[in-house]
């Protein structure tokens, strides 16, 4: 379930309460008159079944509360209540099949922001991938896959395409277009230093056998990217974050970027080109799969119904 907290102008409070009372998936409704100080108004709280959360948020936004008050949603891990059990039973659908769009947009927006933390994780992941390539170590390559934060912007781009959110799309593309070149440039400096120290050479690259799969582009590259992207988006939609680890170690985005840098450093331009192609195939496959999952999802119609009355910053 989700916990809803609303700051409502006094003139809108009765409308909020009336909407919540007729919502079968809403329970534990609490009203505190004059409880909100900034912005001023009444504080309304309720617990919602995930199945009805998107509909409730749409109704609150239609009342203008995103501008005149505030709408907050928080996940609840444990709720012990007969009323909550009844609300979950009466709410139509299944919680795992429910898209809470504002929650999904908020999560992907946060994970697709270009900042120092994102760049640090991406750079560390590329450096780990380069070390795994030089040492022919699949274990290190898997570590680089897990550390890499690139799935966040790719998932956000898929959400932006489906919801027609230009701002989110630009944010995601900025993180990818700026983040990867910076991480690869730092990795190139490290590779050149390793070459100068005698740790990296053309002969050493030719002896690599266990990590050749990184640059071997084929039909299965796209298939794996599509499957991983689908699993990742389903994990985000259903809030099953444990499945994301499997997604991270299924695709070779960061390892391909690292391999392209290492191969270019020693003059293996053909391998560098194939690695770059592998990177592109994986990124495109993940985004396409994410879009397909969201478009084919049972709650797709509700999503587009909410978009029709969207605020200006929610359209292209």
Task: Describe what you observe in this structure.
This protein has 316 residues and is α+β, with helices and mostly antiparallel strands. The protein folds into 2 domains: 2-96, Alpha-Beta Plaits (2-Layer Sandwich); 103-308. The chain contains 15 helices and 4 strands. Strands 2-3-1-4 form a 4-stranded antiparallel beta sheet. Helix 5 (101-111) crosses helix 8 (151-163) and helix 8 packs across helix 14. The longest helix has 31 residues, at 166-196. The model is unreliable at 300-316 (pLDDT under 50).
Number of helices: 15
Could you name the ranges where pLDDT drops below 50 across 5 or more consecutive residues? 300-316
Q: What class, by secondary structure content?
A: alpha+beta
The radius of gyration computed from the alpha-carbon positions, rounded to a whole number of angstroms, is 23 Å
Biggest sheet layout: 4 strands, antiparallel
Relative strand content = 5-15%
Could you tell me the number of beta strands?
A: 4
Write down the overall mean pLDDT: 86
Beginning-to-end CA distance, first to last residue: 32 Å
Spatial order of strands in the largest sheet: 2-3-1-4
Helical percent range? 55-70%
Oligomer: single chain
Order of helices and strands: EHEEHHEHHHHHHHHHHHH
The overall number of domains is: 2
